[in-house]
Design goal:
The protein is an alpha/beta fold and about 575 residues long. It contains 19 helices and 28 strands. The strands form seven sheets. Strands 10-9-6-4-5-11-12 form a seven-stranded mixed β-sheet, with helices on both faces. It has a seven-stranded mixed β-sheet with strand order 14-13-15-16-17-18-19, sandwiched between helices. A five-stranded antiparallel β-sheet has the order 1-20-21-22-23.
Amino acid sequence: MGMHTNKAIWEAETEGLELLNLTIGELLDQQAEALADTEALVYHYPEIGLNLRWTYRQYLDEANRLAKGLLALGIAKGEHIAMWATNVPEWALMQMAAAKIGAVLVTVNTNYRAAELEYVLRQGDVGTLVMIGNYRDNNFLDAVYAIAPELSDVNDPVTEALQCAKLPVLKRVVLIGDEAQPGLIPYAQMLALGESVSDETLHARQANVTPHDLAQMQFTSGTTGFPKGVQMTHHGMVNNAWLTFGRMEVRAGDRYVTPMPFFHVAGSVLSLLGPVVTGTTLIPLIVFDPAKQLELMANERGTHTVGVPTMLIAMLNHPRFQAGEFHLSALRNVGSGGSPVPVTMMEQIHEQMGADVAIVYGVTETHCSITFSLPHDPFALKAGTVGVPIAHTSVKIAHPQTGEPVGFGEQGELCVRGFSPTQGYYKMPDKTAETIDAEGWLHSGDLATMNDKGYINIVGRVKEMVIRGGENIFPAEIEAFLMRHPKVAEAQIVGVPDTFMGEELVALLRLKADEQADEAEIREYCRANISRQKVPKYIRFVDAYPLTASGKVQKFVLKERLIKELGLEDVAKLKMA
């Protein structure tokens, strides 16, 4: 299989691996029996009094305890439980516990405000919300009481179901932490209720859960419309984690340090399930902090770590790292993905951290990974491509109009087929049909190329492509070029409307510490090294970019700001007319 035509299509290979036929609960049970005393989950946060080190047996015991608490609340198989929290230990337990009782875990972005939360709870038919009280400047409690003021009138939230006008399906809210709040069930009380549930009751419920049942629902970012609830199965999540970590050559005794938020597929699938399926140790960050991640990598002797480019750039440029404070002798591999990965950044990781590099590419609609670097490939391929498809996965680069595979090196939309595509968007059959065609190909919305060996490059998003004077321009190419400037730490390219050219390019640059540059210097660098149509018309210097909670740059926010700053509102309206 693999490549067998002169077109950009990769037919799925098994690589000698059979897909696992396990639920998430069965996976944890098996590993707890086989690796009872192996360290499974570590939270090393002495600064907040948290130093948790669970073996696989302890991890299972705690997950079962929570599962019994959920059963005590009367949560049925198939009921939707929303989790709104940072990467606290309760999040990891909730994924395992909900899976054991056959509930569907609905993940909620920690950056969401009240209106966004309301949409997810309503669209996702959420019956139970589990949450922390706040995150940075975002008061979760205020948001919940604003949406469901009826909570304040609930006297006994355990026995009295919430009656909320805006959210008729929502029955209860559970609060993680020690602080009591009106109408909310304390997390500790839920655990205590579970003490009355027998092992036999839990085992009977778990036995009724199958690998192809829904396990999770994640909402897309919604940058081009209302967020869509991606339905994810036990089978898709377990196998995506297994095949991806196998491609990474993660093995017993390894230690995986991750900042990826659990509400994201890179967190819930790769970070939470990858270590379990390989029997290794997971060391999460509660929230991303470059110094903390470096500390954990050094002090916990992390063998593998990961981050979107903005995270890795922050670590590379951190003064304590540049001063040589962190000893990363155990580190073997650093993975990245989630947005275009600059080759220069991967070169810096290889040189300054002494680790191998790998790039993963995937989307929520495929339970995460689609392609991944091959372990024994030369550095140039690992840093400069997203590798080849993982096992049991077919990929084609399709012509946008015909859907037929294009030639090698030609740009088209990346489409995927195999075990991993979602069952569809929850309650959105029309959107599902737009994304998954009649032949089962899931259309990613990403522009890519494939060479004659099957190696793939992501050019950019179909909707981020800038058309300037009839020329198709891909921001990722110019961003990578600008980051080779010795003074530039990070670059983002955005297209803004223009009455004559249709669109013009804006470069937003974040300079390295203690460096200074002006527009003339950057423009001259561009004119000397890239073709004229790719030279940005506007150049801006910034200290930071607006980010999602998973660390991706929100280009739509940048574009909105620039249109206003440049006085292009009327031009933008004309383009939309």
